Amino acid sequence: MTGQGAPAFNPRVVLGLLLFGAIAFAATLYFIGAGETSRGPNDGGSHAAAKGLTGYAALAEILEAEGHEVSLSRSPGAFDDEALLILTPPVFADGEEIVELIGSRRYAGPTLVILPKWHAMTIPDAIPVEKEDGWVVLGGASKPSWIEALEGQYATELALGELDRTQGPDWQSGAHRGELPDPKHVQTIANATMIPLVTASNGNILAGYYDDGGYYPVLDEAAGLPPADEEDLDTSRWNFMVVAEPDLFDNYGMADRERAALAHEIVDLAMEGQDLPIVFDLTLNGLGRTQNLLTLAFAPPFLAATLCLALAMMVVAWRAFRRFGPPLAEARAIAFGKRRLVANSAALILRTRRLHLLTGPYVETVRQRLVAALRLRRSDDETLDHALDRRAPDAPGFAESAEALRQATRPNEILRAASALKSLERKLIR
User: Fold this and answer.
1) Residues 377 and 320 in one domain
2) Is the pTM of this model over 0.90?
3) Domain check: are 321 and 233 in the same one?
4) Which strand (E) or helix (H) includes residue 194?
5) Residues 254-265: pLDDT tens digits?
């Protein structure tokens, strides 16, 4: 006899706890591996993920809306890609690291560096103003200290001061000109081996590319220079462009349509007429992230294996849940007594589908019973048929019934043939 007691807990409650725990654990692993345990990259910095005045999120959105392939990179592996790499280092960055990075990319792809100048801080909660995440207040401007690490043909001298608007527009690039959002703190390039693309009213350079012996026909045409001799220049080298005034590119500057159009044009020029992906680097701003095992587990092609493992765990959990509660009180596999032993043996034969093995032994068993009932000395088929014909003329012969049982293969055929053979014994006993 079997039985089952009442479960100790409500199965639905247990299932809910298991599902919640599994989802929470998987989410914890994912966010740890993806590095999403902080407030996020919109921290008010000077990078493409920031939406404050000094960030470049607006520029990235404009370029993407215009059909460019734009990505924000948090891995140093993007430095080796053939793409336009836009660097937005902070004021107190590591100059040697930047110089090494620029040098390694001269034959990998173009590089555009936007110099910083603003000192910004997120708006404190104590200030009662309406604000959104990442908004900042400007606390002054200064030249980046790491610019001194640029030496040789890339040596650059910066100037920071106020522009006199009586001398002309704040910035000019070909036939385009306009104003800067803050003419009192304008950063320009005062001295460098650079070809200007955008100039200030005082004649200094706001944006340009270095004259380093490379062949840049697209940039030369935009700068108004005559065509250069290709044979005397390095055609494999990509350009290195610098924007000294960040307000031409940052969110502060994107409030003006003319400045936004200028930023888009400069980015297009930096690609030298090629349709290259655009990568905004975030590693120099302290937002770098290296891959680990957790990150790889949730990234292709390992994501498929992770999903299969999760599915297998769900199946195992479901099987365990269905087994929840006290175990059944199992009875004996083979009960006591001859009747039960025969029943178990018959059940085993039925389960293994070996009924055809019983036909021969059953024929011999019936043969011996008929011989005993008829008191015959011989047990061959002819003797049995002769004796049965005398006792039950209307009954079928033993040899015919026995052969039909031996030839039967299907369960129904075996049962019908065995029943017909058994009927001979019943007629004699009756």
Assistant:
1) no
2) no
3) no
4) strand 194-200
5) 999 999 999 999
